[in-house]
Each structure stands twice: as C-alpha cells, then as structure tokens.
Amino acid sequence: MVVAAMLRPLLNAAESARQLAEHYNHFKVGASVLALKESAEVGSIGIFAGWNRKLKSGPCKDRRCAEMHAMWDAFESGYKRILAVAVHAPHQADDATGLDLGVLICCGYCRNSFRALMQMQMLVDPDVLFHFRNAQTGFALSLTLGELLARCGGDRDPAIYTLGTPVTGLLQQAGRSP
Fold it and tell me: pTM of the predicted model, to two decimals?
C-alpha cells in the first residue's frame, strides 16, 4: 500500500536526480529509494535520490552508481529498510550478463551489494520493488529484488565472481558490522 501510494514521487525523484548526474560513459543515471525507519513516527518514510558521480572520499569513494548513493544516504539518515528503488536511465544491456530487458538494470556492483545486504538481512529483502524506466522511450519495468537477481543468473550471475561483496566494506567503514 505505502509503496503504491509513493510510486509517482519515487519515480519523479529518480527522474530529477538524473538531471544532476555527471556524464559517465556518456549516459546519466538517476535513482531514488523509498526507505522506512524502524519506528512508526511521523517522517518514518523518506525518499532519497542519487545520481551517478565520482566522489573523492567517503564510504562510496570511487563508486559512480546512483542506486548506491541513494541507498547510502537513506542508511546514513537512520533509515533501516528499503521498500522500493527507482532507476531512470538510458537503455543499455547488462555488461556482465548481456541481459537486455529494454531498460538499464542495476549493474553487477549494485546487484552484488543488494544481494549481500539481503543475505545479511540488512536494509533489503527479496520483495523490495525495483522500478526501471528507459529515459529515451519511457518504457518501464518493475521487478522484485528476487526476480532481478534470478533473471541475472542468481548464484551464477557473472558479477558475483568478478566483484565480490563490496557492501561489507562500506558497512565496516561506517562503523557498522554486518
């Protein structure tokens, strides 16, 4: 219910964030996450936006991924659970798997991070909704995290073997153990 009611603002935030993105490999990516604090107080649901960029320092140093920046901002602001993720970007097939769903899906680095968090039962679970929108055509695709990971090969996703689980280092750097 909450996710459905917040879908339009979530998609709008991703689209707006894309306007702030730096050109990296000649395309801009905007993302947003709908996050929940553990308590039911006012302001317990928030939308956090991110865009691809390169940072000089901090826990996402040298990472350009919009999804990770949005998720990290939610985490640093005290939000404990991601309910949904929106990505607004030009179309490109996945580098690691060659999978082409008509939209840009999360890269291997982000998939690995979401997979690691899911396995640690932190921030995400298999039912987190991902909404991908093609910035050129408007085509949209919605998948749960579990469906996204399965379509990318599940435990056979080539990104697992080339990237490891980078999110563990981010959490340790922030003083939180997985």
Answer: 0.83
- Inter-residue contact 149 to 97 (CB < 8 Å): no
Task: State CA 38 to chain mean position distance.
Answer: 20
pLDDT at 60 over 80: no
Helix, strand, coil share of the chain (percent; to 5): 35, 20, 45
Nearest CA to 18 out of 45, 47, 53 is that of: 53
Burial class (CB in 10 A: 0-12, 13-18, 19+), 25: exposed
- Judged by DSSP in three states, 173 sits in helix
Contact 120, 178 (CB under 8 A): yes
Which of the residue ranges 10-19, 44-53, 103-112, 137-146 would you say has the lowest mean pLDDT?
Answer: 103-112
Write out the two tokens for 126: 């298999």
Helix ranges (H only) for 32-144 are: 66-76, 108-119
Residue type, 93: A
Tell me how far apart the 2 most distant CA atoms of the chain are, in Å.
43
**In a 3-state reduction of DSSP, which class is residue 63?**
coil
Torsion sign (Cα): 11, 12, 15, 17: negative
Amino acid at position 126, single letter: P
